[in-house]
Amino acid sequence: MKTIEDLGDLAGQRVLVRSDLNVPIKNEVIGDDGRIRASLPTLIKLAKAGAKVIVTAHLGRPKGTPNPEFTLAPVAKRLGELLQPEGITVRFATDVTGDAAQSAVQDLDEGEVLLLENVRYDPREESKDEAERGALAEELAALADVFVSDGFGVVHRKQASVYDVARKLPHAAGGLVLAEVDVLKKLTEDPARPYVVVLGGAKVSDKLAVIDNLLAKADKLLIGGGMVFTFLKAQGHEVGKSLLEEDQLDVVRGYLKEAGDKIVLPTDIVVAPEFKADSPATVVAADAIPADQLGLDIGPESGKAFAAEVATAKTVFWNGPMGVFEMAAFAGGTKAVAQALTEVDGLSVVGGGDSAAAVRQLGFADDAFGHISTGGGASLEYLEGKELPGLAVLEED
């Protein structure tokens, strides 16, 4: 993949950057600005090179219609606050490629950054029709001279601002994309061993291809989160009212048979009668979940056991919380795994999405880990062995 340096002298050039600024916002307050901060090095590099930096990004799922709930205006404000110490001005255009965007690009000075409104306000962004996506890509390309792909969280999407526009302009990968790919190669091509993978989250069906691919690569696969109950049920245990995917039981039985002791399951579970923060929590053996209870976290002994496995590792990849970390009573397992990752003597990777949100909510600093990914879905698809369209197109001349 070409880098920004391969694009030559960018002074005075209009550089369109696809960033991933999809952050949680409630009442115009950003809950976690990790993705915004991750986008800064590339934007600073371009602005300092004298480029006119035009950023396109999305927020949420507005389904092709302008919706104030999904405006990027609060993101532009936060971006401005973060870039102000660098002496970089951030402007905001109130549409995607229309009159406001075109006028703002005309007025943009060298070294300034312009954020366009949510690209998913335009239905063509996510269209399955290549001609429709291509038309939006043409409009985006008309605003710029070159394109830099730096939104790793969307490189698995074949969308106008990710894939199609790269085919219409000289293009390169931004620093964030290069860093993410470098880490993923370390996880897949020749990982330092022992290699431990920790998987959680709600559904085992979301992780089937990852389990398939990593069973042959990892030394240990630790399973927690809501997905663990399908594993426990496959072993013949009662799981009560816990999350369960009945249609995946045969697949999971196959994994358990194939993997032997490579798959590590919790031995105790934190249960409660209801999915509520104040629901009374108790700890039970993993093979003795009461019929009227549901599991909401791995138990304390399992947290210690998982941490001990992580402590032996030279490479750790973690994707998916161990429980409902948003509720204090059910955050212990996730916190135990996160703490263990901070102490790894080797490469520790937090695989984006809910895992990244969890470590920040639980008070861990980003630099306590080897790498926090900005792309949960993109990371998983890479680890599944899939081709990511947004990366493949960057390799085209």
Automatic annotation (TrEMBL):
Subcellular location(s) of the protein: Cytoplasm
Residues where substrate binds: 20-22, 35, 58-61, 120, 157
A Pfam family annotated for this UniProt entry: PGK
PROSITE patterns referenced in this protein's UniProt entry, alphabetically: PGLYCERATE_KINASE (PS00111)
One GO MF term attached to the UniProt entry: kinase activity
Catalytic function, reaction form: (2R)-3-phosphoglycerate + ATP = (2R)-3-phospho-glyceroyl phosphate + ADP
Major subcellular location class: cytoplasm
InterPro entries in alphabetical order: Phosphoglycerate_kinase, Phosphoglycerate_kinase_CS, Phosphoglycerate_kinase_N, Phosphoglycerate_kinase_sf
EC class: transferase
Keyword Protein transport: no
EC assignment: 2.7.2.3
Sites where the protein binds ATP: 207, 295, 326, 352-355
Pathway linked to the protein: Carbohydrate degradation; glycolysis; pyruvate from D-glyceraldehyde 3-phosphate: step 2/5
Keywords noted in UniProt: ATP-binding, Cytoplasm, Glycolysis, Kinase, Nucleotide-binding, Transferase
SUBUNIT field: Monomer.
Family listed: Belongs to the phosphoglycerate kinase family.
Protein's name in the database: Phosphoglycerate kinase
Species the sequence originates in: Kribbella karoonensis
